[in-house]
Every structure is written in C-alpha cells, then in structure tokens.
Known about the structure:
Shape: elongated
Helix content: under 10%
Strand order of the largest sheet: 2-10-9-6
CATH architecture of the largest domain: Sandwich
InterPro entries: Big_2, Invasin/intimin_cell_adhesion
Keywords: Signal
Radius of gyration: 40 Å
Largest sheet: 4 strands, mixed
Organism: Paenibacillus xylanexedens
Signal peptide: 1-28
Low-confidence stretches: 1-30
CATH topology of the largest domain: Immunoglobulin-like
Number of strands: 40
Structural class: mainly beta
Mean pLDDT: 89
Protein name: BIG2 domain-containing protein
Amino acid sequence: MNRIKMALRGTLALIMALTLLVPSLALAATGDVKSIEITNSSPQKMSVSETAALQVMATVEGFDNKQDVTEGVTWSTSNAAVATMVKGKVKAVAAGEATIFAEVDGSKAQLIVQVQEKIKSIKASPKSYSFVKGSESTLPKVSITRANGKEEDVTSEIVWSVSTSSAVLENGKIKGVTPGRVLLQGKYGTTIVKVPVAVTDEITKVEVTPATMQLNIKKSKALKVIGTYANGKTVNLSKQIIWTSSNTNVAIVKNGAVKTLTEGQATLTGTYQNQTIKAEVTVVPLLKKLITGQKKLVLSPQGSTTLSVMAQYDTGKTTVVTNSAVWSSTKPGVATVTNGKIVAVGKGKTSITAKWGNKKVTIPVTVK
C-alpha cells in the first residue's frame, strides 16, 4: 500500500513538472487541480497606464503545499476598455472597474480591478527630517494629485522603506539609530515619493550671527548658525534651524535669511533639537538725503540765522534732525555753526555742513 502511495506521489510530481513545460495541456489531462486563487485577491487599485503582474496558486490533489500555476492560466476581462490582460499582467487602460477572470482546468478565480486617473504628482509632508539618534518621528503624510486635478490623501496606503540602517521603521514611525543620511522612500503602486532624513549626534550649544541687526525695509541678511557637539566638533546649521518671528509683519526668516517687510522691531526665535537661539532685528526706512530750506546764505558781520535740516526716507517720510545732526564750518573765522545756528564772524566765504546718518548737506555762506 505504501509503495502504491509513493508511486502515486511520484507520478503527480512528474505531472507537475510537465505542467511547467506545457501547463494547460498537462493540467487538463491530469484533472488534479481542485481550486485556484489569485494571490493578490483583494481589489487591485491601479492608475491609468500602470501594469501589475498577477500570480495564481492552485490546490492540487496529492500535494500539501499550493502550487504556482500562473503560466497555465487562461485569462479574460469583463471590460477591456478599463483593464486588459497580457501574459499574466493586468494593464490599466482607463478609469473604471473591471473583473479579471483566471481559469485552470475548470477551476476559476477572479479579481476586481479599480482603475483611477493617472497620478500627476505625489508629495510628502514633511518633505525632510532631521533628528537626533535615538529619537523618532511619525512617518510623513502623503497626498497625490491625479490628472483630473483631484487630490487624495493616501497616507494609509503607502509602503515605506529606508535606504540604510542609520534609521529603522517601527510602528508607523521612523527612528534614528546612528548618525548619517537616510532616504525614506514611500511607494504607492508604482509611484514613489522620497524624503531625505538626517540623523545627527546631540548638539550641546547653538550660536547665531548676527544676534542683533538693523536693516532697511525689503532687505535680507543671511543668519549663520553654528552648532557644537558634545565632543567639541562644530557643524553649520544655518539651513536647518526652524525660525519663528514675534512680528511677521516686520520680519521673517526664509531659507536661513532674514527678510524685512515693514518698519518696526521683531525677535526671531530659532530651534534645533532642544536648543533655542534668538536674534533681534530692527527695521528702519532707508535714508535717501538731507534737506535744508536754504541753498546758500549771505550774512553781514555779526549777523546770524538758523537752518533746519530734515531727513528724507525711501518711504517718503521726513523727520527733522537739526539738533541731532553734526554741524561744521570749513572756515570758523568767517562763520560758526551750532545746532543749525550760523553766526557771521568776519568777511569771507565758508561752507556749512550738516551730517546725519550716512548723508550730509552743504550750504555755501558769504559774509560781507
């Protein structure tokens, strides 16, 4: 009896081996296929133009394990306008739904294929990560935009992987293991989104330069941020700091540079790991020129007059700066000046100059 069973099993093994060479004929001849199933039997979600290989496994009489009979399958589709089958691969043709049928020696299986518009773009939020070894972050949210403009949240359907062992994926999170650069890759069907990850050592000190600054309206200035590790080594963190502004109407930080918007003051606060830094910025209008009410003066000896000086800015604003300006005379023996008051001393010619900020104005004076 045992010999008969062994002989039968040997015969079945030979039949299956022949099936790989002539699948449809061999299976039809033996009649030993009890049932088949398409391994990815849950509804297949695809986008237009995508293809996916299907596998069919069979329960065969006399075999403990299921056998791969994919190459012996006769395929058909309920809607070739939506999805077609070519050499075991389903191709998405147009948006809609179709049922793919598989048949082997009278046994049948089917798969529902749901085809959507082609994916135009895919994006992850955040776009990148930077964290200390040993810490972890939740995996990004991912959305796609289809050719028809429709946007979808596909976060729950993304299959994630990492490029190196510097980071690992655990329970929906990415964790830094050792310092290094890692590429976090998310796959949605055949569409891929890549998120760069930087795993770093712990920073013990962060410094920003300049810490205080005065800028004109609609100007920019790069902030240099240096971080120091526990071992004393330093690293440039200028583009990695997350900045907030106490007054976003006055100044903000973009790509590591201060951008000024309107006149005023703002405190910029930067964070990296557990470190906090601050930079103070004062935004002032640009001084264009100094203006006086006189272009030239003629005085008699011992005569006097007072000039006023105004500062004019690029905003159109003017301010009287007579008392704060620095006054001088090229020939004090002809005329002297104090806070805009000119006193004639002796006959001759001189020039009276008022300087304020980085501008100055000069008035010729004649005493006769």
